[in-house]
From TrEMBL:
<keyword id="KW-0963">Cytoplasm</keyword>
<dbReference type="InterPro" id="IPR027496">
    <property type="entry name" value="ARD_euk"/>
</dbReference>
<keyword id="KW-0539">Nucleus</keyword>
<dbReference type="GO" id="GO:0019509">
    <property type="term" value="P:L-methionine salvage from methylthioadenosine"/>
</dbReference>
<dbReference type="GO" id="GO:0046872">
    <property type="term" value="F:metal ion binding"/>
</dbReference>
<keyword id="KW-0533">Nickel</keyword>
<dbReference type="Pfam" id="PF03079">
    <property type="entry name" value="ARD"/>
</dbReference>
<dbReference type="InterPro" id="IPR004313">
    <property type="entry name" value="ARD"/>
</dbReference>
<dbReference type="GO" id="GO:0005634">
    <property type="term" value="C:nucleus"/>
</dbReference>
<dbReference type="GO" id="GO:0005886">
    <property type="term" value="C:plasma membrane"/>
</dbReference>
<dbReference type="InterPro" id="IPR011051">
    <property type="entry name" value="RmlC_Cupin_sf"/>
</dbReference>
<protein>
    <recommendedName>
        <fullName>acireductone dioxygenase (Fe(2+)-requiring)</fullName>
        <ecNumber>1.13.11.54</ecNumber>
    </recommendedName>
</protein>
<keyword id="KW-0479">Metal-binding</keyword>
<keyword id="KW-0408">Iron</keyword>
<keyword id="KW-0486">Methionine biosynthesis</keyword>
<dbReference type="InterPro" id="IPR014710">
    <property type="entry name" value="RmlC-like_jellyroll"/>
</dbReference>
<keyword id="KW-0223">Dioxygenase</keyword>
Amino acid sequence: LDADNYETDPCLKEIRRAENYSWMDIVTIHKDKLPNYEEKIKTFYEEHLHLDDEIRYILDGSGYFDVRDKDDKWIRISMEKGDMITLPAGIYHRFTLDENNYVKAMRLFVGEPVWTAYNRPADDFPARKQYMKFLAEE
């Protein structure tokens, strides 16, 4: 994706149309840009899940998403400018910045955004059970 021209990027427009990502905003994670920076960074790094998919498109900077594999081991995914990731509902994950301590990301949602994170353990949610069923089928 063309992060320098995200406002007019036809590929991003097509992804948003095809996946029905009707809502978006942009967040900058940096000590000078994000209110309650230290608290937010700690919250992002707490292992959690969401009941909806989490879609992030990195417009600038870099960081890491850590996700759990089917054996409950961590997988670190390096994200940088131009990368997009979709974390499925029910997957345990966390986010952290790298040594640059800066990322600017687009957050995309189907419908109205839901920001609720459920810290581990959260295994009784239907989204978690559905995700675990998906893993078992693989």
